[in-house]
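User: Working on a comparison across species. This one is Type-4 uracil-DNA glycosylase from Ruegeria conchae. Can you predict its structure so I can line it up against the others?
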Amino acid sequence: MVGATLCHGKVYSLSLGQKLVRLRVMESGLDHHTARALLEWQIELGATEAIGDAPVDRYALPDKVSKAKKPAAAEPAKKPEPVDAAAVAKQAAKTAGSLVDLRAAMEAFDLCDLKRGARQLVFADGTPGARVMIIGEAPGRDEDREGKPFVGRAGQLLDRMLAAIDLDRRENVYITNVLPWRPPQNRDPKPEEIGMMKPFLEQHVALAKPEVLVVMGNISCQAVLGKRGITRLRGKWDQALNLPVIPMFHPAYLLRQPQMKRQAWADLLDLQARLRGGS
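Assistant: Here's the predicted structure for Type-4 uracil-DNA glycosylase from Ruegeria conchae:
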């Protein structure tokens, strides 16, 4: 509301629409017509009430404007509790009573980001219940496309290596990987990914019931034995998951380093001797 500052004096009543505005002016040298013209000019500018000489404390006046009741401030949303993916995996794996159940549990497990970038789960290949169980690292492009571990050039080399000591995945070898989903650009699996999926691997071994484990490559050694350094570990028998374990070079590594095939052959002969009852 606009106010016009006036002094005590004569009172003039001016009509503004339906309002009657009473304005007071002091007696001064201004004649009646000049004073009235000034007041009418102020009203045209929007003045609707007169302001006197005495100050008015507007803050002390009662608030006649009804204020809308402010809504209660919403409580900040609570952050979700962090999920222990390894614990969830352990519980899911524990409930699997067969290889079929285990595969279904792994298919339903959504806490590993690798699953979102892979075509499909790579579960296993070969003969369940075989004496020898081979554990590789993670699926590559060919494995991701076909849904089986150790296919492509590395898989073909593995089959030739096994055939040299009378083993065959179609008869007496069972094969899986530490991770069932392909890492992007075939990068090495991260420690947290290995730890997350390890309960499934342990249950896989328990359900497959092999006599001997063959861990191929550094990632497999890390997951099963808790050790890395395949050139130092290869060919030396160890113990894990209540089974004898022999680390070997991964076939993909042998394709890049063919001069290491001599050591791989020695490890295969050691495996053959173990299966035949040798020391």
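For your comparison, note: The chain has eleven helices and ten strands.

User: Helpful, thanks.
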